Amino acid sequence: MPAPDYASLIDAETWAFIRETERWYPPETATFTVAQQREVYNAMCAAFRKGRPEGVTAEDRALGGVPCRLYSGPEAAATLVYFHGGGFIVGGLDSHDDVCAELCKGAGVRVVSADYRLVPEHRHPAAYDDALAAARATLAACPGPLLLAGDSAGGTLAAAVAWTLRGEPRLAGQILIYPGLGGDTNRGSYLTHAAAPMLTRDDVLYYHRERYEGGEEPPDDPSAAPLWAPSFAGLPPTVAVSAECDPLADDARAYVALAQAEGVRAHWILEPGLVHGYLRARHSVTRARDSFARITAAAAALARGQWPYGG
User: Fold this and answer.
1) Taking a C-beta distance cutoff of 8 angstroms, is the pair 296, 103 a contact?
2) Total structural domains within the chain
3) What is the CATH number of the domain that holds 199?
4) What is the mean pLDDT of each run of 10 residues along the chain (311 residues)?
5) Is 246 an active-site residue?
6) CB atoms within 10 A of CB 267
7) 152 is known as an active-site residue
8) Annotated catalytic residue: which of 95, 96, 113, 152?
9) pTM of the model
10) Which terminus of the chain has a smaller tally of CB atoms within 10 A, N or C?
11) Reduced to 3 DSSP states, what percent helix, strand and coil does the chain have, rounded to the nearest 5?
12) To 10 degrees, what angle do helices 153-164 and 126-141 make?
């Protein structure tokens, strides 16, 4: 199979974003110590951070024993719990602060960002336990519909929590942004885009090894790999978004197909020419800006109990 022609698939704006990212977070970062990875990731996120939009306030508080940041705007009737990306190793409340604030403003929802525990200090199921505890505490603390969302590793957590809470009447939807869901790393996009900019197959395998004791994924555990769920029935309406140039691209597609087969309202969006981590490009890359607008619109629709995709 010939390697993808990233020179033509990826446009000039996105290449500029990739080069700027690599200036802060070089491609070999996964070989650094964990402390070094966190240092360069935090510096990169700070370099891209745009601040909170006018009218959004934020408060740090614990929910379910998990440090969280609550974003509020005017007249929000629904709440979205957001789980940040970072391979389960990096990231926190500050890394996705502006993303959460913009979702709050753009979708008209309260947002709760959960600062779950990271590996290698706290291996699976610590992050999942924290994500579930934060979601359950948010249900208790915030009235109205609840949405779950996350990017990359955070998408894994959102899908895992959605499976555990399936059937909860107030669970109104989930939005998974370039998630890793436990797909077969020896086929499909994992091979086609094994050397993609921003995230390689080797990076994915490294993050998998770090997440579990002994480096092995637990078998048949939907809290670790949502694609392994024995059933998808009862899941809330689902929007899953893939970047085309990403080893993880097939995970969202496969998840949506399995959910649809069991009667779940589910919609897959493939973003052409985009790369893993493109949320940080939403202010500089037209394709990323348009994708973030689609994500925000999906959150707004699900919060209102609407399904804008037909069927």
Assistant:
1) yes
2) 1
3) 3.40.50.1820
4) 90 98 95 97 97 97 98 92 98 98 98 98 97 98 97 98 97 98 97 98 95 81 96 98 98 98 98 98 98 98 96 67
5) yes
6) 18
7) yes
8) 152
9) 0.98
10) N
11) 40, 20, 40
12) 60
